[in-house]
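Why do we care about 3D structure at all? Because function follows from shape, and shape follows, mostly, from sequence. That is the central idea of this module. The next example makes it concrete: a single protein chain, its amino acid sequence, and then its structure expressed as C-alpha cells.
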Amino acid sequence: MSASFSVGSRAILPFAVTDQAFERAVNTIFNPVVGGGVVATAFPASLRSGSMTAVFTDLAAALDFDNMLAGTAPITWSDTSTSLTIRFLADQTISLTQSDDEITLSDGTDVYVWGVSFSYQEV
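And the structure:
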C-alpha cells in the first residue's frame, strides 16, 4: 500500500493510513402510495465525508501534513491498494498524537510514530 496526500505538485507520503471511514448520504425519496406500493424518486448520493489517520515516522513530516490540512487548498488522497481517490478539505478537528509504543522500521531503527487524525468533507 502506498498512500499519498497532495496539493498541486506537493505530495506528502505517510508511513501508513489507518482508521479510514467513508460515508455518503443517499438522497432517494420514498413515498408510500395509497393502496400499497412505493414511489421512489432517485437523486445522486452526496459527496463522501469521513475520517482517517495518517501515520508518520517523524514529527517534522507529521507537522508538515498538519499544516497542509489546516490550509485552504483542496487535498487529493489516493492509495495504490484501492482505486478510490478523494479530493477533500479537512472538517471539524485535526489532532496530532505520538504513539506510546516504538515500532521497528525495516532498517532496524526504533521510532515512535506520529498520527495525524482528521475528519474530512469531499469537495
